[in-house]
Amino acid sequence: MKKITYTLCLVFSLICIQSQAQILSKADKQFQSYAYQDAIELYEILWQKDSLNDYLVKQLATSYRLLNNSTKTEEWYARLMKSSNVEAEDYLHYARALQANQKYEQAKHYLERYEELAKENVKGIDLDYIADLKSAESRFAIAPISGNSEASDFGTAFYQDKIVFSSAKAKPSLIKRNYRWNEQNYLRLYSSNPLQDGDLKKAVLLSSDLGTNFHDGPVCFNVAGDEMFLTRNYVSDSKRAKRNDEGVVSIQLYYSKKEGKEWSTPKLMSVNLDGYSTGHPSLSKDGKRLYFISDRPGGQGGTDIYYSERNGDTWSEPVNAGEKVNTKENEMFPFVTENNVLYFASKGHAGLGGLDIFWIDDILEGKTVNMGAPVNTSQDDFALIMKNGKGYLSSNREKGESFDDIYRFEILGRLIKGQVFNSETSEILGNSKVSLLNGNGELIGEMETAKDGKFQFEISDVQDYKLISVKQQFTDGAGEVLALDLKDQTEAYRKLFQAPDNTLNLDGLVVYREDRSPVEGVSVIIKKKGSEESIDLITNPEGKITCALERDAEYAIEYHKDDILSKSAYISTFDVEGDRIYVEEEVDKVQVGKVFVLENIFYDLDKSNIRPDAAIELNKLVVIMNDNPSLKIELSSHTDSRGSDAYNMALSDRRAKSAVKYIIENGIAKDRIIAKGYGETKLINHCSNGVKCSKAEHQANRRTEVKVLEL
């Protein structure tokens, strides 16, 4: 009530005593001095008298934006959008405010408008991606610490068994002013002992000797806890603020060494650049690399993340972390884990709004990953630190503006995700089956990929995992994810590669025709058409063989064994679906008195000469006799009942003798084979003289048989 009365009195006094030009001059002076809250009060007084003044609207929109008040920023930029004095950057700022207020479709529209006018690409708003980020809620546990104050608390750091953070909660007794930018107290460093569940309750000043009259923090420490890298406002030896050419009191990095129980006086580091801000340090576990932020020239834009390498007592020239990390907008609060994973906050990478927290495992080759909700919100989320999947972050999600709180969190579930590729063409390979196994080879999950080849598994345990991808006509893909890769990461991404496989697996079986029992010890010879090389196999006790064959080829298969009739067959691997082909062969036991039909022995009409197709079959008989040197046979020829009995007898006799002659000419002794023509005396069906039969029935009687006479 007192503030309202005071403001009314102030309005009346200003209107009565000062001209609007004087009020505007004072407001601009406050704005230029970064006293945005004071400037807002004056601009709003003027706007009440002149609501069509575009300059006032823009100054109010800018002031609220710099105070991080997204609700008011949206309100004033919305007014500005109705004017004719809109610049490209205004569309960007309006879009970011809309995004922070979760009005993503509107934000998408104004971002596209900015890109159109500025001729510059920014990370756009993908509504599906935002939905995906929000789906991560169940994979984290997060809660504010009990020790948050009503002012800003943020920027945690590990320090031995304590947590150190920056807070504006208490005003040192000798300081009689606030930080005019947001009217809060200047930052001081506090330490707190975490409870078993990670909560922070009581906090005390880290050191009463470290404080200045300006901001101190954020900070980081080495593993031993005897080195401190401190962000603070740049002050002179007389402890007065040093401003740059624009009148800004920049932040700088300082170094302090612990001497006994006390910290040495912080000294400026060589990585600073005069006139520009440098701060937000994070030191690698081995103490050799220091990450920090800076707005120095030569960056991607805004504040960028840099790093410097330690060489004894000196530090190398700062190196920009590169475009995989830095964007046109602000990147802040780097943190490097024990496993050298870099976490940072960014406004430029695609996210939910405001500052979002990201990580990357390799700043040169890695992929930047947004941690998603609930770690990130549409407000500012930043300053994450973590060990073994547990840690702290800072956010203004509850209070808004510049009022930050510290949150503790734990990763409950992680993702193992990736994509399958053709190793020869590097193209995406879709429709593979991907399996996830633990270190013991136990199946954890499996899924079929779509055309995009992407896969994803959610896991709860940090351990070693194996990935296997399978697809017909391709070799299997394989990958692994180590527990070390998962410890301080929300997900692991792997590419699996599968090569086109021009082979088929042949599964074969040899059985006896009589009882279909398996035949062991059969020599199986497989030859590809047009090749002299062969695949030589022996059937196992189950009568089985297996081998790899090429696709789109033709093969001849021969079966040999002393006590069977050798056989041959042909298979084709053209147009075979799947990755296997199955063949089964029935063989006959060689027994005295047993009769076998030689298939495909054909003769021209009224002829007895051996045709090429018949020669192929007779060659098989030659092989059988060579395989069984003591075998003696009768080769007989049979006709159907058409024609005279005498004619058929003579024809069958000529044909039998012709076949025997061919076999003898191919190396078989003549005393091992007898030719016999039976004419139509041994019909195997009812088609005798005068009986009307089909061609097929007559064909059955026209045959060449082999009878075993002696073994």
TrEMBL record:
Signal peptide: 1-21
Domain of life: Bacteria
Protein's cellular compartments: Cell outer membrane
Pfam families: OmpA (PF00691), PD40 (PF07676)
Coarse class of the protein's main subcellular location: membrane
Protein name per its UniProtKB record: OmpA-like domain-containing protein
Species name: Marinifilum caeruleilacunae
InterPro entries attached to this UniProt entry: Bact_OuterMem_StrucFunc (IPR050330), OMP_bac (IPR006664), OmpA-like (IPR006665), OmpA-like_sf (IPR036737), Sialidase_sf (IPR036278), TPR-like_helical_dom_sf (IPR011990), WD40 (IPR011659)
Keywords: Cell outer membrane, Membrane, Signal
CDD domains, per the entry: OmpA_C-like, Sialidase_non-viral
Domain OmpA-like: 592-711
